[in-house]
Amino acid sequence: MSTIPWSKIFSFTPQDITKVLLTAVIILIVNKVQIFSDKLSALLIALPLTSLLAMVWMYQAKQTPERIAGHAEGTFWFVLPTLPMFLVFPWMLRNGWSFWSALGANCVLTTILFWITVVVLRKFGIDLMPK
């Protein structure tokens, strides 16, 4: 983690602002669709829009195909531990949990499942969190 160039990450160019605005508009549109159709908004958000946008931004930034491929593969593995949340969270809400309690519990659950995924995949030679 100490090799991350934080000063470069937090310096923004006009192109970065365009990326933020475009990404925010897409999320806002999906949120507004939800007002009228929760199923359509769920379908739209289930599409990997942010991942696709990230890969487009990486390509435009002249990232190597290997880095883009690594991003796509990492995204696949990182999605898996989040999936139970989409079943447990609604179950909790329907069974009397408050929104914030259910959300917090699911954040904890997802974090635990994330680290289990990291540990298990290391045993198969897939290192999501290099040491």
Describe the structure.
- With 131 residues, the chain is mainly α.
- The chain is built from 7 helices and no strands.
- It has helices spanning 6-9, 14-36, 38-46, 49-60, 65-79, 85-94, 99-122.
Topology:
Layout: H1 6-9, H2 14-36, H3 38-46, H4 49-60, H5 65-79, H6 85-94, H7 99-122
Radius of gyration: 18 Å
**Outline type:** globular
- What's the β-strand tally? 0
Largest sheet: none
Distance between the termini: 9 Å
Number of helices: 7
Mean pLDDT: 90
Decide which structural class fits the backbone. mainly alpha
Q: Fraction of residues in helices?
A: over 70%
Q: In brief, what are we looking at here?
A:
The chain is an all-alpha fold. It contains seven helices and no strands.
Q: Top keywords for this entry?
A:
mainly alpha, 7 helices, 131 residues
